[in-house]
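Input (structure):
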């Protein structure tokens, strides 16, 4: 939590003024019992209505000033807390953006969403409550005890015994509940992850008639979370009744002691009332303090979870500095190579075996490379190494003769247009989504990209054209339309290397053929990698790489592989 307080640095004034005004409010509140004692002892006892009215106005003034101080304090506390949360969320989002795919896989999407939303909101609430009550409540508790000593020292010793007892109860419950709240947040992660799975995979669930099974699994995880929250809630709920029992017991003793002291003439009736009022103030403030501690406990648990994300460092180190102009190709007698895989191996974090082993090939500028293999053979893993989404665990990947690890992030990614296996579109319109590929793209460039990707035929039928709205995730488009728009987004930047990771799987054979012809017609400057399950999509490639269980089972042209690669033959004839 301490490390997160750096986000309060721009709100130093608010973090000082909020508790200051709360302390002022507390000071005025501590004077109220003394005024009431004076009203009873001098006004009511002497039947002096003028004095009663005068003291009544004093009470009203104390109330108004206290209210103004309270509102001012809450304004500054809210401003600081909201600003703190805004800075925290912005920094957390930026940090997550710099994590590699390995860390994203380790953390999980549901966990990151929980920490960006629920955890951040809990910490914001904790900061707000601390600024408002953390100094005020203890100040009133100890202030009331000191004021009680100014009235009668013997009666005030009841406060000396009561306050430690209450502290033991409050802090004891806090120590028990703090680790449990961490488990609650972890359970919330699990429920959120299950919910996200069900929402994103709802069509698959319905297709296989697994609704009841998913409901059962969700109910089990939700029930476990509910039971844990109820258990923690029961322990936390002990705070109020136990504190009320202690304080009310102390009040009974105080009234009895006060009656004896009044009877012997040591104190007045008004002073007894003042002592009871101070005990009531202690009760109210300790209940507030108990609730505050529960809030702080939750906030600390959430802050530690957020801090764990900040402490997670990317396994990739990027080179800084200006991009090098021009290409530095690796060459041999055959000419320049744009992409080189030099005996590459890849092992995912936590995996027991390599996902890719001894991948070795070279690609010339302008070539089209097809990559084919069975499910789980490592096709996507291979192309993910080119833009350095993952780092190789042995060997090296070179672009234009340079190891990808020597590039800066922007320098490397500007060279590559990547179409992921899952088509992802963002809420907005078609033009907005294509502008992700090139911010300053003209309408002419957009139309050319749509023509190459075969998306123009359906975009022109839309009432809004390129300004046609797109729902989040492209839910208002078919699978093929989403894929074609994601291809257009990659094509529009005119990259040196274009990677299509099984991005035409939803297209019919005719549209797929048109797309491949259009990509070939882009010019000799673009090197294209096509990952596909269809041999028809890659048979005209300059070179085809066949993968089986992470190994290269064959490499060559369609005719060469059909002649001597058994794996390729099986795939080809199964689709013939």
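Output (sequence):
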């Amino acid at each position: 939590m301490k490390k997160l307080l750096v986000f309060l640095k721009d709100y130093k004034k608010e973090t000082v003024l909020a508790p200051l005004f709360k302390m002022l409010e507390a000071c005025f509140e501590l004077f109220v019992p003394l005024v009431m004692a004076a009203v009873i002892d001098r006004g009511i006892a002497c039947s002096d209505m003028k004095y009663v009215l005068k003291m009544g106005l004093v009470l009203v003034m104390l109330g108004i000033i206290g209210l103004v101080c309270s509102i001012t304090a809450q304004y500054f506390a809210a401003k600081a807390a909201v600003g703190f949360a805004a800075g925290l969320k912005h920094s957390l989002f930026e940090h997550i953006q710099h994590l590699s795919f390995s860390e994203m896989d380790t953390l999980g999407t549901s966990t990151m969403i929980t920490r960006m939303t629920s955890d951040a909101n809990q910490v914001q609430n904790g900061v707000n409550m601390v600024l408002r009550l953390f100094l005020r409540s203890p100040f009133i508790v100890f202030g009331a005890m000191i004021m009680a000593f100014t009235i009668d020292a013997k009666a005030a010793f009841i406060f000396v015994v009561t306050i430690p007892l209450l502290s033991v109860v409050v802090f004891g419950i806090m120590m028990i509940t703090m680790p449990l709240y961490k488990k609650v947040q972890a359970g919330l992660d699990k429920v959120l992850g299950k919910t996200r799975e069900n929402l994103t995979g709802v069509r698959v669930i319905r297709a296989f008639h697994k609704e009841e099974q998913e409901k059962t699994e969700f109910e089990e995880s939700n029930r476990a979370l509910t039971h844990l929250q109820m258990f923690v809630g029961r322990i936390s709920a002990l705070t109020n009744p136990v504190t009320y029992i202690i304080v009310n017991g102390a009040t009974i003793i105080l009234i009895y002691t006060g009656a004896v002291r009044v009877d012997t003439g040591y104190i007045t009736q008004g002073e007894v009332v003042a002592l009871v009022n101070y005990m009531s103030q202690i009760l109210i403030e300790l209940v507030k303090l108990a609730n505050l501690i529960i809030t702080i406990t939750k906030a600390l648990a959430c802050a530690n979870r957020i801090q764990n994300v900040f402490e997670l460092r990317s396994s990739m180190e990027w080179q800084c500095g200006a991009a090098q102009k021009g290409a530095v190709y690796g060459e041999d007698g055959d000419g320049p190579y744009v992409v080189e895989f030099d005996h590459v191996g890849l092992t995912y974090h936590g995996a027991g075996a390599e996902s890719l082993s001894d991948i070795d090939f070279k690609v010339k500028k302008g070539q089209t490379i097809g990559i084919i293999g069975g499910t789980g053979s490592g096709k996507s893993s291979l192309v993910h190494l080119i833009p350095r989404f993952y780092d190789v665990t042995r060997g090296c990947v070179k672009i234009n003769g340079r190891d990808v690890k020597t590039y800066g992030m922007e320098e490397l990614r500007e060279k590559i247009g990547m179409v992921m296996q899952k088509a992802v579109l963002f809420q907005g319109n078609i033009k907005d989504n294509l502008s992700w590929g090139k911010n300053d793209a003209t309408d002419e460039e957009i139309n050319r990209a749509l023509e190459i990707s075969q998306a123009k035929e359906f975009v022109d039928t839309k009432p809004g054209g390129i300004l046609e709205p797109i729902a989040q995730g492209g839910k208002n488009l078919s699978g093929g339309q989403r894929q074609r728009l994601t291809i257009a987004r990659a094509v529009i930047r005119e990259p040196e290397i274009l990677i299509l990771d099984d991005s035409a799987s939803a297209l019919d054979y005719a549209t797929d053929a048109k797309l491949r012809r259009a990509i070939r017609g882009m010019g000799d400057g673009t090197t294209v990698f096509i990952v596909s399950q269809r041999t028809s999509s890659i048979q005209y490639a300059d070179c085809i790489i066949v993968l089986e269980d992470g190994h290269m089972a064959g490499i060559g042209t369609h005719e060469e592989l059909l002649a001597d690669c058994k794996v390729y033959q099986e795939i080809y004839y199964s689709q013939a």
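Notes: The first strand starts at residue 330 and ends at 332. The CA atoms of residues 63 and 219 lie 50 Å apart.
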